[in-house]
């Protein structure tokens, strides 16, 4: 496995469906908080991490199941997420991303709003 293969690692995530948001937790132990970025591009959530490792320390793994140099995870978001209001928290190697749900307005509520807006 060469160095480029290691950079292609992903990290495991859990996604919990809550009343007001989706809560994503990602295991990123060994990566400092400042090396992790969370961004959105074309309705895709992108989580990246990069760790500076000693270039002289060439490790030859027999099996490697977690990233040591870097990772990238992409998740497609649907239209029910308020992408402008996403927040994150990083504690003890676990990244938590809060993906708020868009408020759903029922047709009845929409009709009430329209009735109030139209002078009678």
TrEMBL record:
Annotated SHSP domain residues: 4-119
Superkingdom classification of source = Bacteria
Do you know which Pfam families this protein is assigned to?
HSP20 (PF00011)
Q: Cross-referenced InterPro entries, in alphabetical order?
A: A-crystallin/Hsp20_dom, HSP20-like_chaperone
Protein family:
Belongs to the small heat shock protein (HSP20) family.
Q: What is this protein called?
A: SHSP domain-containing protein
Recorded source organism is Niabella soli DSM 19437
High-level lineage:
Bacteria, Pseudomonadati, Bacteroidota, Chitinophagia, Chitinophagales
């Amino acid at each position: 496995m060469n160095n480029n293969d290691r950079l292609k690692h992903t990290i495991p995530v859990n996604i919990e469906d809550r009343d007001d948001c989706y809560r994503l937790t990602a295991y990123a132990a060994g990566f400092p908080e400042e090396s992790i970025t969370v961004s959105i591009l074309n309705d895709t959530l992108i989580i990246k991490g990069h760790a500076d490792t000693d270039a002289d320390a060439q490790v030859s793994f027999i099996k490697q199941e977690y990233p040591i140099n870097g990772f990238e995870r992409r998740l497609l978001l649907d239209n029910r997420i308020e992408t402008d209001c996403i927040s994150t928290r990083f504690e003890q190697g676990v990244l938590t991303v809060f993906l708020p749900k868009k408020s759903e307005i029922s047709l009845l509520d929409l009709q009430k709003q329209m009735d109030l807006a139209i002078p009678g």
